[in-house]
Design brief:
488 residues, alpha/beta, six-stranded mixed β-sheet, globular, disordered N terminus, binds 5'-O-[(R)-(carboxyoxy)(hydroxy)phosphoryl]adenosine, binds zinc ion
């Protein structure tokens, strides 16, 4: 195997500092797991970042190889000193403190690509969470016309736009593909036809540039995005509410999640969209360009949420799972009834006069369901000592989390238990390239998650997040009384 060995000037000028760096730098092809012995994990990581940064602008092949090797040996002990007595060692006094590492980490650059559903997104972020460039093509309006996402149309739109979106992110960052340290792409979960476009495109870029590929779990990316904008330590509680997913989980670390509960049928975003369609909101002058969820929120703010009594789903199930299908059907029945009373044919464009009240009642009942599940999740974490008292944090994200009524109601729950509520700004709550780039960065910073064989990376339409704890939650038999009030 041919290796482009960087010259000594490159190394010296970068002010590098430890034996590990030297060994990796000068003897990359000898840097195997056999060398494993005693260097501490931290030192190892530190050197990794420095050399990776240095090499990424020189030889992508070289940096790629180092990453893979690092990946293999990162969990083993290293003793480079014993193994290579003839490498150039730098005196220990020259080793910088770990704090200095922030600089080397901040120089890492990850290009992220998102195509799991109906947004083609790309972005470049650095290790400090600065977004250097971003581009996004939304298919929302197209799908609105079709009354929902048609996978084949979504796929074609991703295909048509991915190149300009990725190039747009690089251009706004004023970077070339060659300048980034790694490429991250959503590989799971999502619509197969859509994931396929992003994964194939990312693989093409990897082949072209020799950069490492970091496969990303879409839901993990939603959860980790909050750490890009705020200082949030693991473990923390995560609540993800989107068009495709609904889950409560504990983030214990990068790639380390406990799944407390998830939806047993449909996701809230889809149900908001379907109810909006049933209410014919695309013909409503105030919200005909909005997503179903946004339209419901806008109309609900002008309605009476107690006008119609709807049943809160799963109120008697002592777990953290969700169900929205029954709630959708009872709302459908209500709309049918109101249309009949007003003499409105179901196939006309006419909207029921009590549309605001229906929207408000539907939204309130869905919110009650979310509040109850969150309430139980917090009590469960308390009972099992999962979240430390001094780190009580809930990250709320996903498209539905941009709904302010839902957000404020969930905040009433977090306030009650002294949790800090962190919601990424709306543009980061919905699907985007930044969240994928940042998730890739989180893995990269830990020196993990890089695909050993990028060509073999495949997409996975279904993939639960983390270890399933739902049975344990149920067995804990946690009651959620007294109810926490929805703020008015
Ligand atoms: O996270 P996201 O952009 O895409 C994924 O599903 O992954 O979420 C999109 C969903 C759509 O179903 C949309 O109707 C819903 O989020 N949504 C909302 C609001 N804004 C967007 N749902 C309720 N209230 C909103 N304000
Ligand atoms: Zn999403």
């Amino acid at each position: 195997m041919h290796v482009n060995t960087p010259n000594f000037e490159d190394f010296a000028e970068s002010g590098q500092n430890c034996a590990m760096v030297a060994a990796m730098f000068f003897y990359p092809h000898s840097f195997t797991s056999k060398m494993a012995a005693s260097t501490s994990g931290k030192m190892c990581q530190k050197c990794f970042f420095q050399i990776l940064q240095k090499c990424s602008s020189k030889s992508s092949f070289f940096s790629n190889m180092l990453i893979r090797r690092f990946h293999k040996v990162s969990n083993t002990k290293l003793n480079v000193l014993k193994y290579r007595p003839n490498v150039v060692f730098v005196k220990k006094s020259q080793i910088r403190t770990f704090a200095d590492d922030v600089d080397s980490k901040s120089r890492l650059l990850v290009l992220g690509i998102e195509t799991s559903c109906d947004e083609t997104g790309a972005a470049v972020v650095d290790g400090r969470g600065n977004v250097l460039g971003e581009a996004l093509h939304s298919q929302k309006l197209v799908h609105l016309k079709h009354g929902g996402i048609v996978p084949s149309i979504a796929q074609q739109l991703h295909r048509d736009h991915i190149e300009e979106v990725v190039q747009g992110a690089l251009d706004t960052a004023n970077l070339r593909l060659q300048d980034v340290t790694a490429i991250a792409a959503t590989v799971k979960p999502g619509l197969a036809l859509c994931l396929q476009i992003g994964v194939e495109y990312a693989k093409k870029l990897v082949k072209q540039s020799g950069k490492p590929l970091i496969p990303v779990h879409h839901m993990e990316a939603h959860a980790l995005t909050a750490r890009m904008i705020e200082n949030i330590e693991f473990p923390f509680l995560v609540f993800l509410l989107s068009g495709g997913h609904c889950l409560l989980a504990v983030a214990r670390g990068v790639g380390d999640f406990l799944l407390l509960g998830s939806t047993t049928d449909e996701a809230p975003g889809v149900v908001f969209d379907q109810v909006a369609r049933k209410l014919k909101l695309k013909h409503h002058p105030d919200c005909n360009t909005m997503s179903g969820g946004q339209a419901i929120e806008v109309l609900a703010s002008q309605g009476d949420s107690q006008a119609f009594k709807l049943t809160v789903p799963m109120a008697r199930y002592a777990n953290c799972d969700f169900s929205f299908a029954g709630h959708k059907n009872q709302t459908y029945r209500l709309i049918d009834k109101m249309e009949k009373e007003e003499g409105i044919p179901a196939d006309s464009d006419q909207i029921v006069s009590c549309v605001n009240d229906v929207a408000a009642s539907f939204q309130r009942t869905a919110t009650r369901h979310l509040m109850q599940r969150l309430h139980r999740a917090i009590l469960y974490c308390q009972q099992r000592h999962i979240i430390p008292q001094d780190n009580k944090t809930l990250v709320l994200s996903g498209g539905v989390a941009s709904n302010m009524y839902i957000r404020q109601s969930l905040q009433a729950v977090t306030d009650r238990f002294g949790y800090r509520l962190v919601c990424p700004p709306p543009r980061l709550c919905t699907d985007n390239g930044v969240m994928i780039a940042w998730a890739g960065m989180e893995w990269l910073k830990e020196g993990r998650g890089i695909a050993e064989d990028p060509e073999a990376v495949d997409f996975q339409p279904r993939c639960p997040l983390g270890v399933d704890m739902s049975t344990d939650v149920l067995n804990a038999g946690i009651k959620t009384t007294p109810k926490i009030k929805i703020p008015t």
